[in-house]
Amino acid sequence: MLPVLRRSATLAAVRGLTVALLSVGTAAHLGWVLEYFLDTGLSPLHSFPGELSADGQPHREVFRMAEWVAGAAFLLAVPPLLRVAPVHWQGRLTVAVVCVFALLLLLHATFPPDCAPSVSQACRNRDNVSVSHRIHHVTSVLLALQYVVGPATLVLWWRGGWQAIPVLVLAVEFLAWAAMVALGLLGSWRFVGLAARAQLAALTVLLCAGMAYLLTIDRDVRDRWEDVPR
C-alpha cells in the first residue's frame, strides 16, 4: 500500500500548490477594490475597471501590476490543475478556460488603454487610438464573455450542493453581461461600471468556491486512504 499512499501524498502536495497559486491569483485579481481607497478620479458606477490602468490615470501602475500578477498566478496554476482535475472532457474544459482567462488577463494588463472614456468626451470620440488601446478593448470584451463561460463549464460536472454555486454565479455573470450589452446598444454607458464590477465580484466567489472544492476533495481522499489497512 505504500506506493499508493505516496501517490496520495504527492497529489495532496500538487493540490496544495494549485490552491496556493489560485489564492495569489484571486487576491491580485481583487486589485480593483483598491479604487475605493485611492483617488482614481473614476466613478465605480459608470467606468469600466480597465480604465483604472489607462494612460494618464493616477495609480495606473498599481492596477496594471495587480492584473499582471493575477494572470501570471493563474497561468502557473494550470499545470498542477491539470494533474488534479478530473480526466473527463468537462474537467479539462474548465482547465482550458482557466488558461485562456490567465492569458487574457496578461494581455489586458500589458496593453492598457490610451485614455478613460467615462471621464473624457474626447476619448470617446477619438478615432486614432493606438494598437494597445484596441487590444485592450478586444481583451475586455473577451474577458466579459469568459466570466460567463467559466461557471458554465463547472455546471457541467459539479454535483450536489456544489453545483448550486456556479449556477448562481452564471446567472449573475450573464445578467451583468447582458446589461452591459444593452447599455452599449442604447448608447448609454451609465451604470456600466456597476455591471462590470458585479462580474468581477461574482468571479471572486467562484474562484473561492473552486479552491474550497479542491481542499474538500483532498480531505476526502486523505480520509479514505487513512482507513485503508497498512
From TrEMBL:
Does the record bear Phosphoprotein in its keywords? no
Residue ranges crossing the lipid bilayer per the database entry: 12-34, 68-86, 93-111, 135-158, 165-186, 198-216
Keywords in alphabetical order: Membrane, Transmembrane, Transmembrane helix
Name by which UniProt lists this protein: DUF998 domain-containing protein
Q: Where is the signal peptide?
A: none
Tell me where on the tree of life, at the top rank, the source sits. Bacteria
The protein's organism comes out as Saccharomonospora amisosensis
